[in-house]
Each structure stands twice: as structure tokens, then as C-alpha cells.
Amino acid sequence: MNTPHFTHRLATEADLGALALIMNRSIDALQKGFLSSEAIAASRLVMGLDTQLITDQTYFIVERAGRIAGCGGWSRRATLYGGDHSTSLRDATLLDPAHDPARVRAMYTDPDYTRQGVGRLILGLCETAAADSGYKSVRLMATLAGEPLYRACGYREIERVNSATALGPVPLILMEKPLQSKMGT
Predict the structure, then answer these.
(1) Distance of alpha carbon 65 from alpha carbon 68, whole angstroms
(2) Which of 48, 66, 122, 131 has its CA 20 to 30 A from that of 169?
(3) 127 falls in which pLDDT band (50, 70, 90)?
(4) What percent of the chain has pLDDT above 90?
(5) Could you tell me the pLDDT band of residue 86, with boundaries at 50, 70 and 90?
(6) CA atoms within 13 A on the CB side of 46
(7) Predicted pLDDT of residue 4
(8) What residue spans define the domains of the chain?
């Protein structure tokens, strides 16, 4: 699945530095208008890359002409959100596709590539991979900035929460979407 001018691939450990730059640019630029500068600073304590996604080979990079336009992944593990540094949020327990929703995780778009289909492409890759692995639904923890994309892509709100950090609360939205299997069920 490629959109015009975009390609995708799985992330590797060699991409870690470039991914950190994209995530920082995304947090800085795309959270403005949704969060105060204090809440953006607090969000850095819970947002970021979980390198387990790279190890599990479930983290995608979308590129245009060799430049990373966005990244995001899915997981068969219980962790719902948070980067390597947010240890209190981590749970590597494997989910049961017969009963549990897969997780969509760590979605970031470079601010230079917003509103060009990058987020939709990454979601589609994640949803297809999760469905191919037997999951019947996917769940994610959305930022306020990400909520419009997820709603437009069929995710429904389960509940609004505040993730407590040392710098203050970060508002988030728990969302879920049923998946269609290859058989259409």
C-alpha cells in the first residue's frame, strides 16, 4: 500500500536518531493550538518511541524521496502508549488476538507533510498488519491533535483521560476501531 510519492518500510535500529528528530518536530509543531506550552512539555514525559516496536518489526516509516514523512506502528503487546523512558506505562505482555485489541502506537507526522495522507497511510498499514495477525479490533491513545484524524478513519472514543506527569496532566483520548478480516468479517 503506497500513496502517490510515498513509500513505506519497517524501521530499524539505524533509524532511531532520525525518528527522534521527527517525533520532536511533530510534538513541537502539531500539539500547538491543542495544548499549552506546559502541557506540551509534560507530554514529552509520556510520548516517544517504544523501541520494542522496532524489535517486534511492527513500526513503519513513510518516506518521500528518502526523507521521513511520518512513522507509526502497531503492537501485539499490552502497552497502550508511552516511550522507552515512560517505564510506568510499559507492559510487554502479549495480547490474545481472539479477545484483545491490537495497539496502534507512536504515530508522528513531520510537520512538513501534514494533510498529505501520511497518517492515513500509516494507520492503514497498522490495521492491515493487525488484521492479518488475527486481531478483530485496534485500540489507541490519541492526543488532542491526533483525534480528528482517528475519528475520520473510523475510530470511536471510549473515554477521555489525563495522563499524570511530574509537569502536570496530559489530556488523551482512548479510542478503538473494529477491523475487517480478509473475509470481510
Answers:
(1) 9
(2) 122
(3) very high
(4) 86
(5) confident
(6) 24
(7) 61
(8) 7-178
The tens digit of pLDDT for each residue in 149-166 reads 999 999 999 999 999 999
Number of helical (H) and strand (E) elements in the chain, helices listed first = 5, 7
Instruction: Name residues whose C-beta falls within 8 Å of residue 3's C-beta, 6 or more positions apart in sequence.
Output: 116, 117, 120, 121
Length of the chain: 185
Residues 42 and 127: beta-carbon distance below 8 Å: no
H or E element at residue 125: helix 118-132
Report the distance separating Cα 159 and Cα 173, nearest Å. Answer: 6
> What number does CATH give the domain 7-178?
3.40.630.30
- Cα gap 53→82, rounded to integer Å: 11
How many Cα atoms within 13 Å fall on the side-chain side of residue 176? 10
User: Residue type at 120?
Assistant: R
d(C-alpha 93, C-alpha 18), whole Å: 28
CA atoms within 13 A on the CB side of 149: 22
d(CA 73, CA 163): 21
CA distance 129 to 57: 11
CA 34, 53, 141, 185 dihedral sign is positive
